[in-house]
Amino acid sequence: MGARRAEAAGAGARPRRMGRPPMADQEAVIGAALSIGFSGLSMSAVAERLGVSHSTLYRYFPSRDALAAAAADHAVRAIEWPEPGDDWRAFLTATAWAHWRLHAANPGLAKEITALRLTGPALVDRDNRTGVALLRFGFAPQDAALIVDMLAELVIQAFLAVPPVRDDGDDGAAAPGAAGEQTVDAVQSRRRELIEPWLGAFDPRLRDVLAEAVSGPSADWFERKLNLFLLGVASLAR
Predict the structure, then answer these.
(1) What pTM value is reported for the model?
(2) Which ranges of 40-87 would DSSP assign to H, the alpha helix?
(3) Selection from 124, 33, 30, 120 nearest residue 69 by Cα
(4) Residue 188 CB burial class (10 angstroms; 0-12, 13-18, ≥19)
(5) Structure letter (DSSP) for residue 196
(6) At 33, is the secondary structure helix, strand, or coil?
(7) Burial of 5 by CB count in 10 Å (0-12 exposed, 13-18 middle, 19+ buried)?
(8) Most buried pick, 12, 36, 63, 128, via CB within 10 A?
(9) Looking at domain 81-234, which of 1.25.40, 1.10.357, 2.60.40, 1.10.730 is its CATH number?
(10) Secondary structure letter of residue 170 according to DSSP
């Protein structure tokens, strides 16, 4: 009798699923968000990437913006940031290029920041460290705060025109290095699209400069902007 009951129970039981069940923890969720990228980030996209339900994600993050903030923190910490040294100009130059690498590797992050959709410990800590370094270089507190703000905005502005990076579905978006190249290329491509039809409307003395600006590497034009910015900062140095 007992054997027949066991057989009946076994016959009515659902077959076990083979393979590993979908797994997700906080780090996996953040990793999936970064893989998708800020431009295409949504809770549904992350859930699909991980093969889990929405409810699983909400155990770790209450909203899409909370997840984006955590992903941004992770991205900031992944960048190698410079130490102050003894030269404020070299420090700010290196900091600017660290910001450049951050945004080149994370398409869409610039729009997240300018839309005031996120902030986080790593972003705040980075700005604070830069500001404190400027205080040690002798800058007044008001000037130090302004320099930190303007330096970040200078880089962010360069990446606001970036369209979303397309995900071809091969278990993630482009690799970080490839994504960075696509981002920088997209910036310059968009600038060319906007300015080339209007070059004839500019004074000839400006036309060649603008044509060169949109035909060469984006980083070259940014470097010229950065140097001009640093000239202004020099007037505040004590």
Answers:
(1) 0.81
(2) 43-50, 54-57, 64-78
(3) 120
(4) buried
(5) G
(6) helix
(7) exposed
(8) 36
(9) 1.10.357
(10) S
